[in-house]
Amino acid sequence: MKIYTLTGDQGTTSLVGNQRVQKCDLRICSYGTIDELNALLGLVRAEGLSPRLDEIVNLLQNQLFDLGAELASPNPTERSTDFLVESTL
Asked: Is the pLDDT score of 50 beyond 60?
């Protein structure tokens, strides 16, 4: 099955808001890696953890998801990243 995005593949991808950036952009690589880590943590949680450890990993997953969203935004410096500092385990 072929997938058609109608934007062609010129080596770019879209950030939130349709701003185009190179697929090799550090942000794209970073949020891809963050997404992979988040998926792995989901698999770990699915295998079963103690309630306290599950709570910690769940919090970490939420923070990773928020961080990925920040990186996918065109102007991440204009968005709040306080959640990274405020949370403690």
From this structure: yes
